[in-house]
């Protein structure tokens, strides 16, 4: 272990201690946190699917369109709001660039314990806002322009997408020795997400966390180690002084 590696580890450890002191309340229960996010999502998916009166083969295409839309939303929010300071979304930048990217770097991708999940998963109330406050109105709009069945299917699909994002991103930050952290799909996600956690590349590459569809379309897919787009001497690392 060289001196730079040791220094980096000490810096990450110091940030993690600060984060825990200021963001993780005493008595935090990771099982309750995960269960609340699962409950909000699974209940919404089940309720939405139960509202569909009749099914058609065309609905597969509608679900696919909803999936591609959700993948684009993941890409755009991550690239444009989480790695750029834009009013009135400064809190997203602070939480993501200022906290998540300082808690986890490419070299130190794993949580120290499951008590660190607040650094990975959105708070349950934020998940509820995404599901009801963002997914709900979008589904109403889709249902209004198409049919109510397609509106409900859209809601079920985008919420399922959000849940897959949370679970896959969580897996990418779990030790590989754990069952979920070592799953084949999670190892595939970790490969491109770890590239994104490189401070020199985080503003340039791998903005999709789940399936890197829009990264491929828009030319920001994770590149091999030696050819990173942001690998320039003046590129800043994780934002000092943020968070
Ligand atoms: Zn991450
Ligand atoms: Zn990021």
Kindly describe this structure.
The protein is mostly helical. The chain has one domain. Helices cover 60% and strands 0% of the residues. The protein has eight helices and no strands. The chain has helices spanning 3-23, 30-50, 58-82, 90-103, 124-145, 148-172, 184-196, 213-218. The longest helix has 25 residues, at 58-82. It is globular and about 65 Å long. The two termini are 29 Å apart. Residues 228-243 have low confidence and may be disordered. Residues 100, 104, 169, 173, 193, 197 line the site of one zinc ion.
Short description:
With 243 residues, the chain is mainly α. The protein has helices at residues 3-23, 30-50, 58-82, 90-103, 124-145, 148-172, 184-196, 213-218. The model is unreliable at 228-243 (pLDDT under 50).
List keywords for this structure.
mainly alpha; 8 helices; 60% helix; 0% strand
Helix/strand/pairing class, anyone? mainly alpha
How far apart, in Å, are the first and last alpha carbons?
29 Å
Order of helices and strands: HHHHHHHH
- What is the molecular shape? globular
Question: Which helices and strands, and how do they pair?
Answer:
Layout: H1 3-23, H2 30-50, H3 58-82, H4 90-103, H5 124-145, H6 148-172, H7 184-196, H8 213-218
Helix pairs in contact: 2-5, 2-6, 3-6, 5-6, 6-7
Bound molecules: zinc ion (2 copies).
